[in-house]
Structures are given as C-alpha cells and as structure tokens.
Write a structure and sequence with these properties.
The protein has no helices and eleven strands. With about 130 residues, the protein is an all-beta fold.
Length: about 130
C-alpha cells in the first residue's frame, strides 16, 4: 500500500510561483513512476507532468516550459515547481504513484497509476 499526501497549494497572483510537494509512504519510492494531475470545478481530471521509474519526464503542452517535476528519493517526496502561473492553472492538484514497471507505459494516463493523494488547491488570481 502507498499513501500520498500533497501540500504547498494556496493563492497566488498571476505570474507568481508555487512549489507543490507530495510525500509518499513505502521504501520503494525510487522504483515508482510519479505523476501530477489537476482538476478544475466541473472539468475532467487532466494530466500535468510525470517522472517515470526510468527517469523520463513528460509534460502537458499547457505547462511545458513553466512547470518542472522532480523527486527527492531520500525524503520520499516528489515536487512540482510551477512558475509563471496563469488563472487557467487554477485547480485541485493531485499526485499519483504508478507501481507497475513497464517500459511501454508513458505514465500520462490515469489508468497507469495505482495510488492517488487527496489533492491540494491552487488558485491563481488575475
């Protein structure tokens, strides 16, 4: 079992920055693919970024160049650095863990993940 807890959300003005954290349980964190998704009210959950077990990273087109995903294996924590925030970035951001090692997986789809956190609210004012 894996437990994920997000933190770091809040209210920020457009153009500002936030760093989200996702603390994970388990001693095999280094072997997991980790991803970030977001969901705005009334909208479907969408992929944001992932860092796979093999070290590959993928980003949604809407956040490329602005967001960076990273991990600290010693702390069992994955981060999402968000710069140049826009009002359309407003959403609940959730982290997810993919426990299945599979080279064919890009970890950009919800079904590729096994565990989810509760999410943290990010609000960007205009």
């Amino acid at each position: 079992q894996v437990q994920l807890v997000e933190s770091g959300g809040g209210l920020v003005q457009a153009g500002g920055s936030l760093r989200l954290s996702c603390a994970a349980s388990g001693r095999t964190f280094i072997s997991y693919a980790m991803g970030w998704f977001r969901q705005a009210p009334g909208k479907e959950r969408e992929f944001v970024a992932t860092l796979t077990w093999s070290g590959s990273t993928y980003y949604a087109d809407s956040v490329k160049g602005r967001f960076t995903i990273s991990r600290d294996n010693a702390k069992n924590t994955v981060y999402l650095q968000m710069n140049s925030l826009k009002p359309e970035d407003t959403a609940v951001y959730s982290c997810a863990a993919g426990t299945i090692r599979r080279n064919s997986y890009r970890y950009t789809q919800e079904y590729e993940y096994s565990y989810w956190g509760q999410g943290t609210q990010v609000t960007v004012s205009s």
